[in-house]
Write a structure and sequence with these properties.
Blueprint lengths: L33 E3 L5 E11 L13 E11 L1 E9 L25 H25 L15 H6 L4 E2 L19 H10 L3 H4 L4 E6 H13 L14 E3 L6 E5 L8 E5 L3 E5 L9 E5 L4 E14 L6 E3 L4
Parallel strand pairs: 1-10, 5-13, 6-8
Antiparallel strand pairs: 2-3, 4-12, 6-9, 7-8, 9-13, 10-12, 11-12
Length: 316
């Protein structure tokens, strides 16, 4: 005789204690920045330039001809914190009760598995957020994610960078990919617009969004540039063929249609203490029977010489 199970609800095992978090992207841009630590609020980046002129050596004389210039650009860090309160009693009514100890004081200790999962995911989230902040931050923004400090886009635009869109590509035309795409011509035009002094730097980098990087690879393949080693595209990094520039795709520039070329040491990351955002505290508070966590850190960015940056912006 057959089973009649039409009156039953399909069984779902909810007792697994494996907590799976969503995927986060890393703060990759900072790997290419010059680190300046020990900044509590604002600190000067000390800049030095020397100009000297050749003279005819035809007489026994000493003539001064040149200038050694000391200038500064200030880097200001934002003081940032992430904090929350978790009531462990909320877990009693669900499968999550198995994460609690036995007894009425089951919530008097932080469950190790829960604490580890929360801390791991929170640190990843912080790194994801600062990746966006480093580029798109704007203290005047109404977005709480973006208003903690000014990012590189705002700082570069306020300086005197080289215009990398001399072709006048408009928002209407946009950045296109494929066999008739213009993403590759954008990259080479920017490379050709580098100041002469920049072309000799050994640490040249061109930052773009990973979305632009994907489109560029599609374009190179569509235009039959199969002489390019496919492994060069690993980890959103590749040397631009024929140019001594590393193209780096970063998530902080996704959706912006912006590109920036300079040398790595021209981009400065300011912090109070190295890796401070990875110092996570989580504890049980007896005064209100809650679990609390806290991350606090300081961070900001700056560019040393805006005039030695080539930037690409679509024409409105």
């Amino acid at each position: 005789m057959a089973f009649d199970v039409s009156g039953l609800t399909a069984y779902v095992n909810q007792t697994s204690t494996e907590l799976i978090g969503r995927a986060y992207f890393e703060a990759k841009s900072a790997d290419y920045f010059t680190l300046q630590a020990g900044i509590k609020s604002s600190e000067a980046i000390q800049l030095l330039s020397v100009q000297a002129y050749p003279q005819a050596d035809t007489a026994c004389s000493f003539t001064a001809s040149g200038t050694t210039t000391l200038t500064q650009r200030n880097i200001t860090v934002g003081a940032i914190k992430y904090q929350d309160i978790l009531c462990m009693k909320t877990l009693r009514a669900y499968w999550t009760q198995i994460l609690l100890r036995s007894g009425s004081n089951d919530d008097s200790e932080v469950n190790e598995k829960m604490a580890q999962s929360v801390s791991d995911l929170l640190i990843k989230l912080v790194k994801e957020n600062v990746e966006v902040l480093d580029w798109q931050g704007d203290t005047t923004s109404g977005d709480p994610l973006l208003n903690k400090y000014d990012g590189l886009i705002k700082l570069i635009d306020a300086g005197s960078p080289v215009d990398g869109n001399t072709a006048g590509i408009t928002v209407g035309t946009g950045i296109t990919t494929g066999a008739s795409g213009n993403s590759d011509t954008i990259v080479y035009a920017m490379a050709d617009l580098r100041p002469a002094a920049l072309k000799g730097a050994t640490d040249q980098v061109m930052f773009c969004g990973t979305d632009f990087f994907d489109g560029l690879v599609t374009t190179l393949i569509a235009k039959n540039n199969f002489h390019i080693n496919a492994t060069d595209f690993a980890n959103y990094e590749m040397t631009i063929p024929g140019r001594n520039i590393k193209l780096v795709g970063v998530n902080g520039l996704n959706g912006t249609n912006r590109l920036f070329t300079s040398y790595q040491s021209n981009f400065v990351l300011g912090v109070d203490m190295m890796n401070e955002e990875e110092e996570f505290k989580i504890w049980y508070s007896e005064d209100d029977d809650n679990v609390k966590y806290s991350i606090k850190f300081k961070r900001g960015v700056q560019v040393a010489y805006p005039s030695q940056i080539v930037e690409f912006t679509l024409v409105p």
